[in-house]
Design brief:
Length: 147
């Protein structure tokens, strides 16, 4: 199954761990080539810019369009909603946009962690898109999709 992996740029180690787990489970994770370069310390300046959530970097590399294309091509999205500051299981603004893309293209939407109850401003919309919460158990993807 092709799965677009959506997350904040701030969680480099977790990204690669999740990517590797998906591959072990015979999925094809779709993510941008820059994640791998950042992980291998091949693009330290880019990592610094990406961590700042810079709009210039998003424009330069066209990340929004890139992930839209990944989502259209994939069977599902995996939303890696890690905690940010005081908000548990935070959904980043770009990630919320990606959830919307997946929804309108009838893609399965998986959340790595539960819905962030403290983000009231997107709570109803999130629930309306029926995401499936995995609680870090990536093996559930296959069970849910192929049973």
């Amino acid at each position: 199954m092709k799965i677009t992996v959506c997350w904040s740029a701030s969680f480099r180690g977790e990204k690669i761990e999740i990517r590797d787990q998906l591959i072990e489970l015979w999925h094809v994770p779709l993510l941008d080539e820059w994640t791998e370069k950042i992980f291998k310390w091949e693009a330290p300046e880019l990592e610094k810019q990406v961590k700042q959530e810079s709009s210039e970097v998003k424009k330069k590399f066209d990340f929004i369009k890139m992930y839209y294309d990944f989502i259209v091509e994939s069977d599902a999205v995996l939303i890696c909603n890690f905690s940010k500051k005081s908000i548990k299981n935070y959904i980043w603004s770009n990630t919320f946009l990606e959830i919307g893309y997946a929804h309108v293209y009838w893609k399965k939407i998986f959340l790595l962690n539960p819905i962030p109850e403290k983000q009231e401003y997107i709570l109803d919309e999130l629930k309306a898109m029926d995401p499936i919460v995995l609680n870090w158990d990536l093996s559930l993807i296959k069970k849910i999709c192929f049973t």
